Amino acid sequence: MSFTWNIPTKVLFGAGRLGELHNEAPLGKKALIVISNGRSTKTNGSLDKLQSELEQWGAEYVVFNKIQANPLEPTVQEGVEFGRANGCDFVVGLGGGSVLDAAKTIAAVIPQKEGRVWDFIMFGTGGKKPLTEKMLPYIAVTTSAGTGSEVDAGAVISNPATNEKTAIFAGFPVLAIVDPNYMLTVPKKFTAYQGFDAFFHNAEGYISKARNEAADMIELTAIAKLAKYLPIAVEDGSNLEARTQVAFANTLGGFSMDVCACTAEHSLEHALSAYHQELPHGAGLIMISVAYFGHFVEKHACDDRFIDMARAMGNANANKASDFIDALKALQKACGVDELKMSDYGITPEEFPKMVQNTRDAMGFLLQFDPVELSDEDMLNIFKKSYR
Prior knowledge:
The chain contains 13 helices and 8 strands. By secondary structure, the protein is α/β, with parallel strands linked by helices. A 6-stranded parallel sheet has the order 1-8-5-4-2-3, with helices on both faces. It has a two-stranded antiparallel ribbon with strand order 6-7. The chain is globular, with a radius of gyration of 20 Å. The model has no long low-confidence stretch (mean pLDDT 97).
């Protein structure tokens, strides 16, 4: 047994916790608040509440409101320049995973002496420059339950010029606030997409070659929570208990990535949404999940692990690896996402070979964590089996 547990982020978890930010020690004099290009933080009241909390600190703030789903490098770079121009000395990300990833990256790049965001990407065509200057203090306030970005050091950024979607390891938030009160208005389909992203962080970690007993503890708890509560949260978004349990599983998914690692399911999906920006990350993961996990079931790569997950999902009598696939299909049906189609997002089978290569080039480092090695033909077959 071997693992490293180094998670320096303080977490305020629970309904109403955003209203306690003012009790924390101030992190600076002027905040850059990073939000999406939509209206969710205004309609759910979180932006007003955050601004009130910062005012109680005596902190000034400016708002950068241009982050799109699957955040684009030029937009994140614009946020860096906006923060510099306004003399911001700390950053607050308020929103879902895309916003938190963008804000984390902005906080890391603002202090650097030279270079733009893509210069600090270590994979694909990234410039592979080290982040030599200390990251600005960063607060992550999540208003969705999907990525776990509020408690990990990584972020995912897309480069539209090269069709690459890959990771930057920017640094940990100083403080994370997970307040389910601000998740109650997330629409059904996005509740499901985000919840399955959290599910796959944990399920991938559980079969990963990086698995360890600390991670097992986290991941099986999260898998059980999501199997029980995600369908409830999808059906009744106002159910605070269900929202809280799903949010907890999401944060556990972030912890999973801190002490373990995802596998190439994420790399494969990133290739899909790198070419099709409008595809929600969680939806893409759902589309390929049965074929992806089914590949390892057929290989008998880690039968005991799949049985463990099936039991955590409610099948106390699970005794074969394929029981996990049955449970996964049932959960997708219960959440109304079992009929998602790649073709609805303009994806065509002719693209799959370049997506296989993109998987290797842009985010191939996750391939090392698959329970058995995936060949290019294996990846191509996973895409083909998933296509509808």
